[in-house]
Amino acid sequence: MNYFAHAVAFLDQPYFIAGTAVPDWLSVVDRKIRIRSKHAVLLVDDADPVTATVARGIQQHFRDDACFHEKRAFAELWLDLTVMIRDALAGEGSLRPSFLGHLLVEVLLDASLIAEEPARLDAYYRAMDSLDAQRVQQAVNRMAPRQTGDLVWMIDRFRRERILWDYLDDDRLMIRLNQVMNRVRLSHIPDAFRRVLPEIRQRVTQQKDALLEGIPAQPAPSG
Known about the structure:
Helix content: 55-70%
Structural class: mainly alpha
Number of strands: 0
Shape: globular
């Protein structure tokens, strides 16, 4: 799952939705920091309410992902998109079609949720804008096996760039996808790939309900 799908049920809890984003933010700023649910669980009842809420959000992220990735709908759609992408890339046999298929299921699920009710994305960014990024970083550094000084920068950049809006437009989405390809050291997606994006969007949207069934896997705790 991606940022918005993790957060959409909790838009009134800014530090909780920050926690749902923390594992993905860390994968951008430092992939060596492998925060896990076992790290967060130690602080879900911390005396500091921000730390406790961020920890609960991190736990929610991993509960959601476990539920999502075990779904038959996800596995079948991922396989279908991988084959479709491989064919669109002239039968490419590298890891890129599989990686891109997985990524597009998650990113375009966010896009489908946003298109359904765009006002919810406005609410999401209002919640993000209300965060004290330094307090989020301090909370994460109490849990993570390694310290980071870059999470404040990442949160500020995430809020500034509003990248989730770009998922609604094929041209802007291509730019974002190639940024990911660059970060994971895979070759860029050719411009010709744009022609299959509308069909891929349609397939993900058609499976939206099946992909999200039972998620959130557990309700957000109060606090």
